[in-house]
Amino acid sequence: MLVLALESSCDETAAAVVKDGRTVLSSIVASQISVHAEYGGVVPEIASRKHLESVSFVVEQALAEAGVGLDRIEGIAVTQGPGLAGALLVGISVAKGLAFGRSLPLVGVNHIEGHLLAVFLEAPVQFPFIALAVSGGHSHLYRVDGIGRYQTLGQTVDDAAGEAFDKVAKLIGLPYPGGVAIDRLAVSGDPRAIKFPRPLLHDGTFNFSFSGLKTAVLTHVGKHPEAKEAGINDLAASFQAAVCEVLTKKTAAAIAATGIKRLVVAGGVACNSALRRSMGEYAAANGVELSIPSPPLCADNAAMIAVPGDYYLGLGMKSGFDLDALPVWPLDKLAARLKEHC
Ligand code: ATP
Ligand code: MG
Ligand code: FE
């Protein structure tokens, strides 16, 4: 099936044309990063307005690059949540208009489900697998038994990993989004220079906590102002090492507890070079089959939305024109929706 997918949950306006949920014919992403960088983070009202400005062009570009007209599209998939309500509504409204105008089936997709399945656009992964979603709003460990069948094993009790990167970057004077800036500086820093805490590492759960780590960085730069100047590479590397160690060890614990030796790491923070390295080393040493999408598929995009979208549309699952944005939408809820339909 040829699916047109739309994504507008946060600060990227994206559209993609994907064949059979596997082959990307086009994937266009218009980022608003430069606009929000001025404010040090995403401003919801501005995000919605920017989506409105870009969405038509992004859809046209996706169709043009794929070399197909709207008449060839067989279904529409759109991010329904989680995300910023006003931002989500832009993609949803356009998707509804296209579906109505062309009498096409429409399905609402969970953004995090898209992140977890993005890797299928490069190489399929056998079920079940363990998945770590690390992004601006999520640090979640899941057991994945199939498309639509997710069980949360653990999650952050406060900040998400990406949020921690962004907040720490801001407090040491780096631009938004902070993850990229910290990753870059950390390359020439010593990850052992500063011993930051490893929160919840031994608490026996699969939960994460990153807000204490942010406070630890704040306390450190308060006592050692030079850490923000000449010492900034070591600071970035040490903070990043703490985040990566916790993410890798908790994921390892989930794999050990479930005996499932297949792992997917997904979401914007999965672009992080130290995390990719640390997960790679752990997987190689423990016979775990590791899949991490290439960086453009880790970051927000619409192609990833087409993977579950194509599957659900193939099952005949359709959303009505009353489809509404779901700013909060835990993945565990998807199993019931699937069961209701099948
Ligand atoms: P969610 O997916 O939870 O709804 P989101 O869509 O806003 O949130 P993503 O776009 O998936 O989040 O990821 C963005 C996050 O990834 C930002 O917090 C950003 O700092 C982080 N990030 C991007 N690249 C890197 C990197 N190289 N290292 C660390 N973090 C990174
Ligand atoms: Mg984003
Ligand atoms: Fe995302």
TrEMBL record:
**What chemistry does it catalyse, as a reaction equation?**
L-threonylcarbamoyladenylate + adenosine(37) in tRNA = N(6)-L-threonylcarbamoyladenosine(37) in tRNA + AMP + H(+)
List, separated by semicolons, the cofactors it needs: Fe(2+)
Q: Where in or outside the cell is it found?
A: Cytoplasm
Q: Name one GO cellular component term.
A: cytoplasm
- Gcp-like domain location is 23-306
Entry note: cofactor: Binds 1 Fe(2+) ion per subunit.
Q: Which HAMAP family match?
A: TsaD
The protein's matches in InterPro entries, at most eight in alphabetical order, are given as: ATPase_NBD, Gcp-like_dom, KAE1/TsaD, TsaD
The UniProt record gives the binding positions of Fe cation as: 111, 115, 300
Q: What is its main location?
A: cytoplasm
For whether the record's keyword set contains Lipid metabolism, the answer is no
One GO term under biological process is: tRNA threonylcarbamoyladenosine modification
Enzyme Commission number(s): 2.3.1.234
Q: What is this protein called?
A: tRNA N6-adenosine threonylcarbamoyltransferase
The UniProt family comment states: Belongs to the KAE1 / TsaD family.
Job description of the protein: Required for the formation of a threonylcarbamoyl group on adenosine at position 37 (t(6)A37) in tRNAs that read codons beginning with adenine. Is involved in the transfer of the threonylcarbamoyl moiety of threonylcarbamoyl-AMP (TC-AMP) to the N6 group of A37, together with TsaE and TsaB. TsaD likely plays a direct catalytic role in this reaction.
Per UniProt, the enzyme's principal EC class comes to transferase
- NCBIfam families tied to this protein: gcp_kae1 (TIGR00329), T6A_TsaD_YgjD (TIGR03723)
Keywords annotated in UniProt:
Acyltransferase, Cytoplasm, Iron, Metal-binding, Transferase, tRNA processing
